[in-house]
Amino acid sequence: MSLKRELLSRAEEIEIRILERDLSTQAAETASKLQLESIKKLAKLEAECRKLKAMARKASAANDYKSLTASSIGDESITDRQSDIGERLLAVESHSCKMSGLEMNECDPSCSDSRARAHATEFDQYKNWKPIGRNRTVHSVEINLMDDFLEMERLAAFPYALSGSSYLEAEPVSDKGNGSGNPWKEELESMINRTAELEEKLDKMEEEKNKSEMALTKCQRQLETLRSHLHEADTKIGELQAKLALANESRQAREEEMKDIEAKSEETKSQLRIAEAEIKTLLSKVVSLDSEVEKERALSTENAVKSQQLEDELSKLKCEAELQHENERRRVASFNEELKITQGKELAVAASKLADCQKTISSLGLQLKSLATFEDLMFDSEKSSDAISEGLKAHADDEQQRPDPRNLSSGRDSEAFQVSRGALRTKKGSNRESSLSLNSSFVSEKNRNGFGKFPPRGLSRVRNEN
């Protein structure tokens, strides 16, 4: 944004400078036009000055002619005066022809334009023209002095002029009476009238000359001011051209910067497009993730419900397990009581059976003593006592290895207790079977030998001691 603002400000400055340049060129054109117009005016004024100088010369020639006519009336003869007047008339006519030719040239616009252009080209040589003007002024001063001298001579010859004029006036009357006129007198009168007219014209020309000189001075001043303005305009044009060159350089630099900025903007646009594409893909991914999140939320809610249900079920199962545990404890306690009762009963039965066994053993010992030698009987008794002692030790070990039902806290303890109970029963059964097998072996041997009816002596003694 800042670069755009700078570019806009620079563009406005360039437009302002272009407008200033256009205005300066217009001012220079107007100054050049004014200069050409002033040059044309100067050419016209110079032509008028020349015309006025020609008229002044014509008037001076007429004055010379007057003075000569006035002096010739008293001094010279009429023939001499007529010859002089003719020469002066020829000179005046030739001069008038020249002036009329100049007037025609001045009236022609093409000639005036060509003269203005010539004066424009020769304006630099104006200084060289000034000494010529001075010579002309000196010449006019000399003419004026001659005019003054001739005027004095005319005043001196004034009485003769009066007499001559009266004579000339009388002559026409006589001529009229005679019926014939003098052409020289008519020419003289016409010349006098013409000189009067020329004097009037001369006065007018002098006034116009003064006015033209004033206008010339004004035009010269205007020309000097226009030259100064033109010089200032040239300097301004140079400054503006320098500024324009700087502005063009700055514009080129700004254009290069704009190109760089446009390239950067294109790069940023391409990056922005890529980013927009990535954003679109990410948005699609976000939408898919949102759908997945919603699904996961639904699943999580379902799982939460299921977990709540499972927790409820677990709590129920815990309650049931606690109840079962309590029931098992009660069962174990009752079983332990029953076990103690059964153990007591079994012990009583075992004790009774042991007593029976001892009785049978004692009877068998008596029979053996009676049937065999003392050593054989002793050997047999030792074997039987060892067998009995081993059976008692095995029974005691089984009772020690039996687990305590109070320490059992679950169904597994009860199962182990039942297993141990079965093992104990099997052991008891095996002990019983072993004792019975021993008894049966002894009885069978005694029956074979025929001594089953009589117990040995040693055993009877032992029983008596007991």
From TrEMBL:
Source species, domain of life: Eukaryota
Residue stretches of biased makeup (Low complexity): 432-444
Keywords: Coiled coil
SUPFAM superfamilies in the cross-refs: Tropomyosin (SSF57997)
Keyword Coiled coil: yes
Ranges in coiled-coil conformation: 188-327
Amino acid composition bias (Basic and acidic residues), ranges on this chain: 392-405
Region feature (Disordered): 385-466
Similarity comment: family membership: Belongs to the FPP family.
The name this protein goes by in its record: Filament-like plant protein
Naturally occurring in which organism (per UniProt): Populus deltoides (Eastern poplar)
Biological classification of the source: Eukaryota, Viridiplantae, Streptophyta, Embryophyta, Tracheophyta
